[in-house]
Structure formats: C-alpha cells, structure tokens
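Problem 12. The chain below contains 198 residues. Write out its predicted structure in token notation.
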Amino acid sequence: MDVPELLEAAGLLVPEGAATANAITVSDVWDYLAHDEWEIALGLLEELGDDRPQPPAFWRSLAEAAEQLRLERSAAWCHWRCSETRHGVVRAELTLRPPGSTFRKGPVPGPGVLRPMWDIGRRLPTGKASLCIGGLWVEHTPFLELGERATVRIVPLTPSLWTDVHVGQEITMHEDRTVAAGAVVLELRPPAVGAPRG
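Solution.
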C-alpha cells in the first residue's frame, strides 16, 4: 500500500466520534489527506492514537506510512506503540544514577533502543532478585543524561511477569549487577484484549 492508503486504513480504525483534547477528529485527517498533506495527517492520527487505545493494525499502518515518508522517529514511535498494545506498558518517573556511580558513561537513548533489566520485586528461591527485561522509551527527549529524571515508558518482554506491579511501586533499572536508575510507577496499561503477542 502507498502512504495515503496506509493512512486511510489507520483512519478507518478510529472509532466514530473519537476526538483528542484539542478537538482533533478523524474528519481533520480526511481533510489533510484530500490535500496530500500526508505528514500532517500522520501526526494527527498519532495524536488520536495517544488519546485512546488503538489496535496493533492501526500502529502498523502508521509505522509503514512513516517509513515510506522517511520519518524515522515517527516510525520508531508507531512501532513502539504497536508493541505497547501487544505487551502492555508501565509508565514511570525514572531517575538515572549520577556519573561515576554505574558503568554507564553517557546518556540513555530516548527512542526505545535500550532493553534493560528491572527489579520489580520478583524473587528467586534463594531470595535474590529475579530481574525482568523491559524496553525503555524516554518521553519527550532524544536522550536522558546521567543524574537526570524523566517520565519513561516500559514495555515488558514477558507481560505475565509484571502482573503484580502497581502504581506507586518503586522499581530499579539494571544494565549490569548495579542499579542504574530508580523509578516510581505512575500508570499501568495491560495488553489490549485479543492483541497478538510477539
């Protein structure tokens, strides 16, 4: 499919009457598509997707359209959101340890590149922490410097291991045996019902 067809396919998945806080509706998307303003239409659809959960097909269509438009960050975001739909997401306030306190020497990349381990309270029979893997997206910034704080999105690799996590819980991020960051859980969104995993 070409870009307009992909954007139309995504637009058809948006429920009738859905609108963002800024009163953007799918009708606005159709207007921009009619004038070949594909990048604007893509941005509006992303906003509509942020406002309410959308199916994986919605995000896949947007990711493919963004790739065809060579909008790398937008494509990465749409792939990430598709992953959130399939695996759920934990939003948290993350604080990186200061320079010199971990092995990391540079900033954490923001757009979903890092797949660290997390201590979410699970324990092995020996009492040691059983760490779980979760992808990390730092909201509203391309990278997070050591010692800084930001809201992040964590996509669990194995959602069933994260079912006991709750809002307000303190969790820690690990890239080796040491704690790289501490976080407080702000919000939990389970996988979409019927969403395919993987």
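Discussion. The first helix runs from residue 3 to 12. Students who got a different answer should revisit the alignment rule from Section 12.3.
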